[in-house]
Amino acid sequence: MKTRWVKTSLAASISALLSTSALAQSESNQVEADVEKITVHGLHRAYQGAFEYKEVPAAAQDIDLGLIGDAGAINLNDALDLSASVARQNNFGGLWNSFAIRGFSGDENLPSGFLVNGFNAGRGFGGPRDLAGIDHVEVLKGPKAALFGRGEPGGAVNLVTKRPQFLSGGEVKATYGSWEQVRLEADVQTVLGSKEDVGLRLVGFYEDAESFRDTVETEKVGFYPSLSWEFSEDTRMTYELEYTEQKIPFDRGVIAIDGKLGIQPIETFVGDPSGDRINTDVVGHQLEISHKLNDDWNLLLGAGLRDTTFEGNALETNFEGRQTVFIDPDQTLLSRFKRYRDFETDYLVLRGELAGEFETGSISHRIIIGGDYDKFENDQVILRYRPAYFSSDTDISDLDLSQYLVIDILNPDYSPVADVELSDNLDRLETQEAWGFYIQDQIDITDKLQVRFGGRVDKFEQQIDNRLNDPVTTTSQDDTRFSPQLGAVYLLDDSLSFYATYGEGFRQLTGSDYAGNPFEPNQSESVEVGVKADLTSMFDNLRGDVTLSAFNIEQSNILVFDSSEEASDGFFLTPAGKARSRGVELDINAEFKNGVSLWMSYAYIDAESTNHAEDANFVAAIEAGDPLINVPENQLS
């Protein structure tokens, strides 16, 4: 059972309401809250269309603001813990969000992809996402490539932001919690213009906190203003700014000695507290124009621009198999190496979408037609110092321990380490550019049977400039892929529906092989069936829904270690891994009229490798049938 958020119950929170009865509305009155939510989010939602949940041939979860508050969640990882379909993965020492949906997580050396208002915001290195400025979190399960495009087959996470509600008011919160946590949040909005047709909302936060880990301290600040202008009842333009700055130490956690934990005290930090904080910055812009053409058709135009930076030094533990981890027989003197990282990403996306309804004879159609363009530039520079390797029979008294950046895990000394010389390790610019066109048509065959046909064509180009070489070498690839989706929904009555869906997808891989060539994309195939119950239609004193689903996903071209003779001169990867995930999920979201609510999420996931390969990080052997890493078989939230 997921309980990571429980520690936040130690915090004391003070909330001051500034004005308006609208903001003081009781959260327990969920019916009115849902009506308000529809108004706030505007006229149309990108990529999703206008469907009741029971009409969608896929499972989904909506983690709303009330649930986020009840759980004490302040960052994306905390919110996703509420979904049993999601499992935390390698978060790169606490420096980004990483998660698996239905067993698949993507490249563990990159942040997990997530969406903000349908725009891809996981690309880049902006640090872990705070929930300040977020209204609710959607976990959209199953194959989404037919609309969203390139991504993971298990599903997608979409964050819906707080936008102007065309009223005046706000709240300020101050929190003091465990380990000297100090957090301030503000959410203020007002109405502008003589016609009160402009809404302004200002959301921000500041947090400074220590940790149960000695010497570890983080500092974060974020500002998320938004402006909505209603040109008419049918047309609205919304602009949003995202600015976040974080200073976070690179902390991989405790060391397992001979496969056992508990030897190193959990409070011992093995990095460098004087210089191990990584600085991450995000500046993002989103612009959306929504126009209701008539009662049946809506047009949505959007543009997004997001720049991130990631810079700083880190002392890291050496890897078993590649380097000497402990230099003494007692295994207390830990050898470390030093890396300096300077990453910068620029991401541009443009999109347009037309959604509407029409009839052909007695058959009605709900259709979504759209296209998008995106360009992603990923500039990475890494400098590294790694101590010389020595064999097990070496007398350590002959070694200069200062050059091994040693720390005693039982009695750490955080004095400044030796001034070592860093050398080039990576200097690469990768550019990905893509054009996509998608269409989805959900057809009412009868009053009870609906069929969904969808597909997306993506044309993408990828170029890698390796600046370590002199002269600079450039490799590239381009390809066109089609991602189909087919689904069906049978409405037994107003309260019960059955569905099935099939989809295919792909995801571009970052990096290159031993010859400098870009990797072939991941490919996936997914099948899902399920049943949904609308509790509001079934009971007078109960509202909400229940979803029972089963799925099977297969993925190929997963990055693994390249053990071929051609790649023997270095540590290279190749897209040769295969995996399969299948499982059953039960999600319950219910609320009684007396205000008592129930949220339950359970998942049984059997995720495993289906071929022999070697791990992309530690060259450990992976056999067919081995479980995928960090994916629990049973999970309950």
UniProtKB/TrEMBL annotation:
Primary subcellular site in the record, as a coarse category: membrane
The protein's name in its UniProt record: TonB-dependent siderophore receptor
Entry keyword set: Cell outer membrane, Membrane, Receptor, Signal, TonB box, Transmembrane, Transmembrane beta strand, Transport
Domain TonB-dependent receptor-like beta-barrel: 229-637
One Gene Ontology term, aspect cellular component: cell outer membrane
Residues annotated as signal peptide: 1-24
InterPro entries per the UniProt record, alphabetical: Beta-barrel_TonB, Beta-barrel_TonB_sf, Plug_dom, Plug_dom_sf, TonB-dep_rcpt-like, TonB_sidphr_rcpt
Superkingdom per UniProt: Bacteria
Membrane topology: Multi-pass membrane protein
GO terms under biological process: siderophore transport
Native species: Alteromonas australica
Family note: Belongs to the TonB-dependent receptor family.
GO molecular function: siderophore uptake transmembrane transporter activity; signaling receptor activity
Cross-referenced CDD domains: ligand_gated_channel (cd01347)
PANTHER family from the UniProt entry: FERRICHROME IRON RECEPTOR-RELATED, METAL-PSEUDOPALINE RECEPTOR CNTO
